[in-house]
Description:
- The protein contains 6 helices and 4 strands.
- By secondary structure, the chain is of the alpha/beta class.
- The model has no long low-confidence stretch (mean pLDDT 90).
Amino acid sequence: MKKNILFLCTGNSCRSQMAEGWGKHLKSSEFNFYSAGTKKHGLNPFAIKAMREVGVDISGHESNTTDVLPQEKMDYVFTVCSDAHENCPFFPGGKIIHTGFDDPPRLTSHIEDEEEKMAVYRRVRDEIKEMVSNIESYLGGKNE
């Protein structure tokens, strides 16, 4: 049976959405992937654009909080930001793994040039891809 993996962030608008997109794109035969936030901020258009550039469409994703997750047990919960890690809800039987990434919306809030903004989103997108590509190493090296 496939294990369930949740990517948790504050607003479920960018980093957790990218991680879910990469998970489904790269590892859907091995795991079930979900994303949620401690709050609901809506899907970030720059995150959608950055993922679309590499052939991963997250435009149909919804920004959710943990209270609308499926009833299945989350075997692993990856917190992708410090706030979510510090305020992580309880997931019975779920192993919490912190893998923090920079927050593109926060880092680019003062940047007007779209290409400069996209450079930040692309960097974080690629960092998240690297983590998801090697996700087994965070789980003890195997899909049990």
